[in-house]
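Structural prep section.
Before we set up the soaks we want a predicted structure of the protein with glycine in place, mainly to decide which crystallisation condition to try first. Input record follows.
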Amino acid sequence: MAALKAGRPALDAVEAGVREVESDAADHSVGLGGYPNLLGDVEQDASIMDGRTLLAGAVAALKGYPHAISVARKVMEMLPHVLLVGEGATRFAGEMGFTLAELRTPDAMAAWRERLLKAMPLATFETLHEARDLAHWVYLASDPERAGGTTNFIALDAEGNLASGVSTSGWFAKYPGRVGDSPIIGAGNYADNRYGAATCTGMGEMALRAGAARSVVLYLKTGMTVDAAVRQAMLDLNDLGGDYLDSMSILALDREGAPAGFTNLEQGEIYWMLTDTMTAPAQVIRTFVQTHKRWGKR
Ligand code: GLY
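Run finished without errors. Recording the tokens verbatim:
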């Protein structure tokens, strides 16, 4: 809000907001202190989208840089590309002058060790880097309660420009290289000044398969209200087959600044909103929508 009140664009506000969460070591789903993958590395996914131009930038499986959102913005601004992954993303972050940092905090690593040792013998844990059966262990190490968490920001500036930003360290103990919905434009993030913006948090595979964020914006384009658009995108998740269906929350803002927050998690989940006439951010209860949940090899 400080950025917006200073006349800076929605993109700046979104980037600044996401950076706050990425800096918070107590948040184990994003940035510094994010829970690591199966091999103990923090791999980050992030994206940013400019609703004015539909330009977007994203990074996936980025290691060693705490502000994935800012690297994503540089991809948008400096390259003729949208998405960089893995080694390329890391190389680019270095080229752009971002500072390397240790993202693996002691408490996140302790939680990782404890979690894996509940699922596998010590000898297996100690030789995981050489293991040829990580695909087996990933199912033991992941569970829907601990699967993930993501930060979502959407901003509308005084010029009527929308921007959206998403950042996450993804599933706890995910298979190395696993990429969720957060850096995928249309899945976890979409913004278009003409209609609105939407972002997702929860089980990224569901938003990927349903194209959830883009669906919300397309539903807005058909003339639905923002509530109806997000509800329909949530209900679309019921069309997903298979065994790995779980939490999903969608946040949206229409071009007039009307917000909507929905979840299938539980009654009482919240999001935060702030307008220029408010003195402090307010918690808003998300609308609960029941969708199918089933988790295969529990
Ligand atoms: N929604 C974040 C993820 O699945 O990685």
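Observations: The mean pLDDT is 94.
Flagged for discussion at group meeting.
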